[in-house]
């Protein structure tokens, strides 16, 4: 079979899909800080797209682009139909979740458990490609321990060695995947929570580097535990892109520096004051739609991470708010009382 060489350029930096975090309010906020990084929706199931409130689930603002839709499913027919539905929203790419370690997700044959079924993953990717001309990508782990999830008569339950991942890639790549995003930890599908699966299994970055070396024609992006600009720079010596997770939520101002990794781009020279000023008009719009101002602002709690005023900022944002205070009032008050050096600091 001829090798598929994607013509889609891999983003140098992307922001990982995170349940209850990479929602529209978060994406608006993050897009103020990084103009070039690829953003993702939360993981959305095919069932939700086919049977849920599609506008609520799939709507986004054009300012959020480039933006990828991440889908979870296990049935090629359903995933074809879900991608067809999503075509109306014109996402920049569609990503298949083969990495979620939650045993609840795995119990429904979605997420990381699919690494044990590479032929099925290949069929789903082919179905996605039939449904869209957009880039189709796959996010997965370096391996899984399927004990307690996979059937007892299954041929094996441990897919946790490099050779297992290599065989997975060899099977799936033929379905024309534009990029593989590899979380450099195995997923333990029973006995660990999703949170524990982000910390306890050891990081094996060298496995991802080796994958790129053995499959140089594939677009390979690395994910897992990456927290600093220096680490991004180091990883980009070996792979095509870097996906950032919790750091984008815990210390989002760091992201102002990541645009430098894109061609003909520079550090986004923005201050926290300018970010807050922009969020004032955004939260006014949110509250005019009768949505919670706090829901729009809770994703900004890490804006002053490690800086003077961090605790005060979190206290200001977190309810209960003073009687009759709107989100605009909270933000305007913050601009008056937070330390000037933190408000005016810029990424360069």
UniProtKB/TrEMBL annotation:
<dbReference type="GO" id="GO:0102264">
    <property type="term" value="F:tRNA-dihydrouridine20 synthase activity"/>
</dbReference>
<keyword id="KW-0285">Flavoprotein</keyword>
<keyword id="KW-0819">tRNA processing</keyword>
<feature type="site" description="Interacts with tRNA; defines subfamily-specific binding signature">
    <location>
        <position position="314"/>
    </location>
</feature>
<dbReference type="InterPro" id="IPR001269">
    <property type="entry name" value="DUS_fam"/>
</dbReference>
<comment type="similarity">
    <text>Belongs to the Dus family. DusA subfamily.</text>
</comment>
<protein>
    <recommendedName>
        <fullName>tRNA-dihydrouridine(20/20a) synthase</fullName>
        <ecNumber>1.3.1.91</ecNumber>
    </recommendedName>
</protein>
<comment type="function">
    <text>Catalyzes the synthesis of 5,6-dihydrouridine (D), a modified base found in the D-loop of most tRNAs, via the reduction of the C5-C6 double bond in target uridines. Specifically modifies U20 and U20a in tRNAs.</text>
</comment>
<feature type="binding site">
    <location>
        <position position="70"/>
    </location>
    <ligand>
        <name>FMN</name>
    </ligand>
</feature>
<dbReference type="GO" id="GO:0000049">
    <property type="term" value="F:tRNA binding"/>
</dbReference>
<dbReference type="GO" id="GO:0050660">
    <property type="term" value="F:flavin adenine dinucleotide binding"/>
</dbReference>
<dbReference type="InterPro" id="IPR018517">
    <property type="entry name" value="tRNA_hU_synthase_CS"/>
</dbReference>
<feature type="domain" description="DUS-like FMN-binding">
    <location>
        <begin position="15"/>
        <end position="317"/>
    </location>
</feature>
<dbReference type="GO" id="GO:0102266">
    <property type="term" value="F:tRNA-dihydrouridine20a synthase activity"/>
</dbReference>
<keyword id="KW-0560">Oxidoreductase</keyword>
<keyword id="KW-0288">FMN</keyword>
<keyword id="KW-0547">Nucleotide-binding</keyword>
<dbReference type="InterPro" id="IPR004653">
    <property type="entry name" value="DusA"/>
</dbReference>
<dbReference type="Pfam" id="PF01207">
    <property type="entry name" value="Dus"/>
</dbReference>
<dbReference type="InterPro" id="IPR013785">
    <property type="entry name" value="Aldolase_TIM"/>
</dbReference>
<dbReference type="GO" id="GO:0010181">
    <property type="term" value="F:FMN binding"/>
</dbReference>
<keyword id="KW-0820">tRNA-binding</keyword>
<feature type="site" description="Interacts with tRNA; defines subfamily-specific binding signature">
    <location>
        <position position="195"/>
    </location>
</feature>
<feature type="active site" description="Proton donor">
    <location>
        <position position="100"/>
    </location>
</feature>
<feature type="binding site">
    <location>
        <position position="183"/>
    </location>
    <ligand>
        <name>FMN</name>
    </ligand>
</feature>
<feature type="binding site">
    <location>
        <begin position="245"/>
        <end position="246"/>
    </location>
    <ligand>
        <name>FMN</name>
    </ligand>
</feature>
<feature type="site" description="Interacts with tRNA">
    <location>
        <position position="198"/>
    </location>
</feature>
<dbReference type="InterPro" id="IPR035587">
    <property type="entry name" value="DUS-like_FMN-bd"/>
</dbReference>
<feature type="binding site">
    <location>
        <position position="139"/>
    </location>
    <ligand>
        <name>FMN</name>
    </ligand>
</feature>
<feature type="site" description="Interacts with tRNA">
    <location>
        <position position="97"/>
    </location>
</feature>
<feature type="binding site">
    <location>
        <begin position="223"/>
        <end position="225"/>
    </location>
    <ligand>
        <name>FMN</name>
    </ligand>
</feature>
<keyword id="KW-0521">NADP</keyword>
<keyword id="KW-0694">RNA-binding</keyword>
<comment type="similarity">
    <text>Belongs to the dus family.</text>
</comment>
């Amino acid at each position: 079979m001829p090798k598929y060489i994607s013509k889609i350029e891999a983003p140098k930096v992307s922001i990982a899909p995170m349940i209850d975090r990479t929602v529209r309010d978060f994406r608006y906020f993050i897009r103020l800080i990084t103009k070039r990084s690829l953003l993702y929706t939360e993981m959305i199931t095919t069932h939700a797209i086919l049977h849920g409130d599609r506008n609520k689930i799939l709507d986004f603002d054009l300012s959020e682009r480039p933006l990828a839709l991440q889908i979870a499913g296990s049935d090629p027919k359903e995933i074809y139909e879900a991608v067809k539905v999503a075509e109306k929203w014109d996402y920049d790419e569609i990503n298949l979740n083969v990495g979620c370690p939650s045993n609840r997700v795995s119990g429904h044959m979605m997420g990381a458990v699919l690494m044990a079924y590479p032929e099925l993953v290949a069929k789903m990717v082919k179905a996605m490609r039939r449904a869209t001309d957009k880039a189709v990508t796959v996010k997965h782990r370096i391996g899984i321990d399927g004990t307690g999830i996979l059937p007892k008569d299954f041929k094996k339950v441990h897919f946790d060695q490099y050779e297992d991942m290599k065989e997975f890639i060899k099977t799936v790549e033929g379905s024309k995947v534009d990029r593989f995003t590899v979380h450099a930890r195995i997923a333990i599908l029973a006995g660990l929570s999703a949170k524990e699966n982000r910390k306890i299994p050891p990081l094996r970055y060298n496995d991802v580097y080796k994958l790129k070396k053995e499959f140089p024609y594939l677009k390979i992006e690395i994910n897992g535990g990456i927290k600093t600009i220096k680490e991004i720079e180091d990883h980009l010596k070996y792979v095509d892109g870097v996906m950032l997770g919790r750091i984008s939520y815990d210390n989002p101002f760091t992201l102002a520096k990541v645009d430098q990794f894109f061609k003909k781009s520079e550090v986004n020279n923005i201050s926290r004051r300018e970010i807050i000023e922009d969020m004032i008009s955004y939260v006014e719009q949110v509250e005019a739609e009768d949505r919670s101002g706090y829901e729009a602002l809770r994703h900004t709690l890490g804006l002053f991470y490690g800086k003077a005023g961090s605790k005060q900022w979190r206290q200001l944002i977190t309810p209960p708010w003073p009687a009759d205070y709107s989100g605009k009032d909270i933000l305007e008050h913050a601009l008056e009382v937070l330390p000037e050096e933190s408000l005016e600091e810029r990424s360069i």
